[in-house]
Amino acid sequence: MDAPYLFLFFSIITLLHLPGFCTAGDTITASQSLRDVNGSTLSSRDGTFEMGFFSPGNSQKRFLGIWYKSIPAKNVVWVANRLNPINDSSGVLMIDDSGKLVILSSKSAVVWSANSTGPARDPVVQLLDTGNLVLRDGNDGDSGTTYLWQSFDYPTDTVLPEMKIGWDLRRGLDRRLTAWKSPDDPSPGDFSWGLELHNYPEAVAWKGNQEYFRSGPWNGLRYSGAPEQRANPLFSFDFVNDEDELYLTNHLKNKSVLTRTILNQSNYAWERYVWSEATLAWKLFTTVPKDYCDKYGLCGAYSNCDVTDLPICQCLPGFSPKSPEKWNSMDWSGGCTRNKPLDCGDGDGFIKFGGLKLPDTTFSWVNRTFDLKECRAKCLRNCSCMAYTHSDISGPGSGCAMWFGDLVDIRHFEEGGQDLYIRMPRSALELKSRHWWEIAVIVIAVIVPASVLLLTCYYIRRWRKKPKEAKIDEGEKEPKNESSKEDLELPLFDLATITDATDNFSFNQKLGEGGFGPVYKGTLPDGRQIAVKRLSAISRQGAREFKNEVKLIAKLQHRNLVKLLGCCEGEEMMLIYEYLPNRSLDAFIFDGTRGKLLDWQNRFNIICGIARGLLYLHQDSRLRIIHRDLKASNVLLDEKMNPKISDFGMARTFGGDQSEGNTNRVVGTYGYMAPEYAIDGLFSVKSDVFSFGILVLEIISGKRNRGLFHSNQNLIGHAWRLYAEGRPLDLIDPCLDGSCILSEVLRCIHLSFLCLQHHPENRPSMASVVVMLGSEGPLPPPKQPGFLIDKNPFEGDSSSSKQELNSVNEITVTLVEAR
Ligand SMILES: *[C@@H]1O[C@H](CO)[C@@H](O)[C@H](O)[C@H]1NC(C)=O
Ligand SMILES: *[C@@H]1O[C@H](CO)[C@@H](O)[C@H](O)[C@H]1NC(C)=O
Ligand SMILES: *[C@@H]1O[C@H](CO)[C@@H](O)[C@H](O)[C@H]1NC(C)=O
Ligand SMILES: *[C@@H]1O[C@H](CO)[C@@H](O)[C@H](O)[C@H]1NC(C)=O
Ligand SMILES: *[C@@H]1O[C@H](CO)[C@@H](O)[C@H](O)[C@H]1NC(C)=O
Ligand SMILES: *[C@@H]1O[C@H](CO)[C@@H](O)[C@H](O)[C@H]1NC(C)=O
Ligand SMILES: *[C@@H]1O[C@H](CO)[C@@H](O)[C@H](O)[C@H]1NC(C)=O
């Protein structure tokens, strides 16, 4: 008899005297079966997972699947016969006579079968605690890790911890995910995810046969395009890339946490959920694509996508749109081309770009032993090599990755991006170096004589004035001296206290993710509630300066500043703040529902409070702090809706650290930056005034400055147009509905235009702002504000010769030895 007939024969025989015995334990042996009609199930030993037949959603069809036993919503993590449903409840799962795992239906048709890698004398099916369904040889014992077959090799739409997504190259097995077609139908939809076998491999999500999202290559720490994969308290990742295997897997740090990642067809998203015991619900932990810039190739070649920018696609410096017409009508997919052709040969050089997601690696090449210099030399020798960088950044940086052909799908990250060295013709490099020299000459010509003069004046003054006065001077200028004797006053919390207070930085205590790291809520033993900010971005070297800074800032006290209670030094530095229950201002004003909770009186109060807080930072405190990142999400609200500015001084701290090269972060949020900062990198208290002006408009209108996305006009432009047309009240947030005192609103709008003047010297100081808010006298007429329309800062007014060297637009452009 031929094999298929033999098989059928045995199947029928088996079916005829089916063991009437159903399993309720945690294994199925050759003499047992799992039968839909009895509703029997198989559980994992620890009771986390359960397997059985089910009908998804509104469907009547039956499938064999695995789900969480204790969660009533029956979140199915794996489906066996997703391609071939059973129409009635006749399904049976069993081991057939050849030792294979099969599902049979009423007519003894084989609905599904598992390809085991070899025969077993004593085959046993077991559902492991990880949710992996395995077929193993019973003689191997429980602890065996060689399986004849395992469901983890055939994932459906869900990744569980310990599951490998990627390739077993020896077996040619590609473990990739495919979304369910719909909640009623587990058959494969058109959304899939897997690792691509490029020289520099990366994960790619496909929508049909269109590339939809790429993770970026694994850089030793994380996927280049997934800064959110950074160290977190819940899980860790392992990426394996050798001759035999290429995969990513994740491990739980606390085995009792439940987490799953699914591909969701309905919104084309990769979503990680974590089960919250507190709320008995799945909490969305991360989702990809996270924003518009994650869409594959949105900006075309040689173009940078930055969500904080408008338009979000910007040609890299030295490039311009291939088709300006399309580009201006917001179709960026054509990308950019070089302004000057490559010389191709020894004339070319490279420009370093920082903070990026590495481009598409379809045409890439990697050598893990090359250093950066060899990498550069090799890239330079091949004219189609367009860029290079370290392939691994887990240490100080090692290995070499190169790109051939156009560089596609580059985006910028505020934090966690990478350096990329992009090939440029000599002419472009020389142009830059001339700029650089020009600036050096200016610096030498201006700064040196100026400092000589200042020093002279200082010594003359010192010499003239009597020591008594000089002492007061020192006290004012060098609070650091003073603080050293007040060392004991520095509120230092020990790590154990903070760990306890935040329930070991438990996920449930997480309040959110700030610019510099996650923020947790905690409760001290004395009952005080605190917010703990873990600063992932601070290096060890920076720690001392950082502590000095914290000592100073901890002394700042004002009703409208969040109180810094102290700090704590663990593996990372942590800042301990007072806890404010009412979240940040942006959660209210930009939300149609919650916006109603803030009437005009509240909002006016908030505007005045922010103004007073800023005035204190600018003038009254000993430190004279420029906030540099004033925005709605940095204004927290206390239980009485009083505003408290947060994150002050941090900008200053990090700014100082930047020279050490350990952060590529440019402080500030583009939508709130003053023109002189965005274009020339100049910052003063008046730039904070500008940000304040934007904040006032946002509070009045309930709209984000960068929110008016398609019109290429921002909120300032919109407000000014309404003002110029004589209908400024049209700006008012509909949420305010009747609560407004129109004269106050008008005064605030008027005042915001004064704050938004293009030239810093035309803007009022915070002191004048506070006075103007509190009085009713006439205000000076405003001129047209700056930044009416968002423009590409790289194309900004050409009179500013420094613009290319400044870190504008949050890409840092640095010159690399131009030969
Ligand atoms: C399971 O169902 C079959 C067919 O209906 C029946 O013969 C058998 O006794 C049932 N077994 C158990 C354990 O209920
Ligand atoms: C279920 O019904 C469909 C359509 O009637 C048929 O194509 C399919 O083969 C049936 N499946 C089984 C397992 O009988
Ligand atoms: C079993 O192997 C065959 C041929 O190699 C393949 O077509 C089929 O998809 C495999 N089935 C499963 C469930 O992996
Ligand atoms: C692990 O998580 C569980 C449930 O969230 C918690 O009860 C337990 O204390 C955690 N264990 C550790 C070592 O953190
Ligand atoms: C997929 O996304 C939709 C829309 O966000 C959501 O309602 C649904 O619950 C998600 N599916 C799963 C399996 O989580
Ligand atoms: C990578 O570089 C090392 C040392 O320079 C060399 O021995 C090796 O052959 C290179 N590998 C490839 C794939 O070129
Ligand atoms: C440059 O690199 C490409 C891609 O690896 C290769 O096809 C081409 O032959 C190389 N050219 C030279 C001159 O080495």
Automatic annotation (TrEMBL):
Enzyme class: transferase
Keywords: ATP-binding, Disulfide bond, EGF-like domain, Glycoprotein, Kinase, Membrane, Nucleotide-binding, Phosphoprotein, Receptor, Serine/threonine-protein kinase, Signal, Transferase, Transmembrane, Transmembrane helix
Domain Apple: 344-425
Residue ranges of every copy of the EGF-like domain listed in the record: 289-325
Intracellular or extracellular location(s): Membrane
Pfam families, per the entry: B_lectin, DUF3403, PAN_2, PK_Tyr_Ser-Thr, S_locus_glycop
Membrane topology: Single-pass type I membrane protein
Region (Disordered): 782-805
InterPro entries for this protein: Bulb-type_lectin_dom, Bulb-type_lectin_dom_sf, EGF, Kinase-like_dom_sf, Pan_app, Prot_kinase_dom, S-locus_recpt_kinase_C, S_locus_glycoprot_dom
Entry's transmembrane regions: 436-460
GO MF terms held by the record: ATP binding; protein serine/threonine kinase activity
Gene3D superfamilies in alphabetical order: Bulb-type lectin domain, Phosphorylase Kinase, domain 1, Transferase(Phosphotransferase) domain 1
Reaction catalyzed: L-seryl-[protein] + ATP = O-phospho-L-seryl-[protein] + ADP + H(+); L-threonyl-[protein] + ATP = O-phospho-L-threonyl-[protein] + ADP + H(+)
Domain Protein kinase: 505-787
Signal peptide: 1-24
GO cellular component, one term: membrane
Chief place where the protein resides: membrane
EC number(s) given by UniProt: 2.7.11.1
Keyword check for Transmembrane: yes
Segments forming domain Bulb-type lectin: 27-148
Protein family (similarity comment): Belongs to the protein kinase superfamily. Ser/Thr protein kinase family.
Protein name listed in UniProt: Receptor-like serine/threonine-protein kinase
Source organism: Eucalyptus globulus (Tasmanian blue gum)
Phylogenetic classification of the source organism: Eukaryota, Viridiplantae, Streptophyta, Embryophyta, Tracheophyta
